[in-house]
Amino acid sequence: MKEYLRYIFFSLFGGMVVFIFLSLLKGPGIPRRVERIRVITHRPPLTYRLPDEIAFCDERIPLEKRHVWERLDKEYLLAVGNTPQVLLWLKRSNRYFPYIWEKLMEEELPGDLKYLAVIESDLIQDVRSPVGAAGPWQLMKSTARKMGLRVDSVIDERYDFHRSTEAAIRYLKRLNRVFDSWTLSVAAYNVGMTRIQSEMRRQKINDYYYLELPEETERYLFRAIAAKLILSKPEKFGLILAEDQYYYPIPHDVVDLEVRGSISLETIAHASQTHLKTIRELNPHIRGHYLPPGHYAIKIPEGKIDTFEENFKKSPRAIHVVKKGENLTNIARRYNISISQLMKLNGIQRAETIYPGQHLIVARGT
Fold this sequence. Notes:
- The protein has 15 helices and 8 strands.
- By secondary structure, it is mostly helical.
- The chain has 3 domains: 40 residues; 191 residues, Lysozyme (Orthogonal Bundle); 113 residues, Membrane-bound Lytic Murein Transglycosylase D, Chain A (Roll), CATH 3.10.350.
- It has a two-stranded antiparallel ribbon. It has a two-stranded antiparallel ribbon with strand order 3-6.
- Helix 3 packs across helix 10, helix 8 crosses helix 9 and helix 8 packs across helix 10.
- The longest helix is centred in the first third of the chain and has 25 residues.
- 28% of the residues are buried.
């Protein structure tokens, strides 16, 4: 009897297990999971195809040459795939492209040249390369000076967007007079005029697409073309920004300063009723903390000229940095003030001594 009951129990238990297993296989949850996988798997892939005809600076790109097409296709896909960087290009272009375009049109140069600033610096003003190129157009010191920019420890106009743009355009115009080809001119902007001329003589080739050049230079033109293709039609890639998402030009005014002694940027900031950080952001070309004697054009927040001039009259205008071996007597004589005036301006007691590196007020505003 016990054996019979045990047999019935195991039969019923086994039947329940089989029933539950079959129910799970046929249950409503499994088809939905399979359906989700099917939908994801069969989603149409995103594709990016180069246009059949492309020109840069009004010069046709020979895409029928397979090696040209492949080099451009590579840079195009690399750029398209970096969505955050492309979005930053797009946002910053609204701040910088209008001025670049205006200056290019004044010089009757192709508007496509504005894309060189994109691939040089990502449209960032205060940037420097490991080899010493600086600013939004990544000019080397020697080139910048030849193009009329001031480059020293106090002022480096390569970081001034407006001045460096004008210098870069002058340089590009000069390069095109030499090469009479924008492809070669753009390559020379990257690697230098002398290097391109030397390689053309050595290789006996005057075609950019067949010249053997440093890898960066061989990619350079194609990177600029890729930037053009994306930024000229951002909606093609789903890059659609609302008006308030763009970066706008920072409104500012310019004041002319004639500094007699030395002046700190804090003094300029206080006279403008703004912050030191704001003055630095508006004037990245000022590399030091003090301006020595000389004439300067300083950018201050828009609408602050009257405020600046009024406050500046009340501010210490000239500061002298004490050098080794100097004393109050020869400093006072240099700035044509009395020793007592110099001591009063700086709150110096007669028993105090001055030291190298100390900053002394030597004149007030007038």
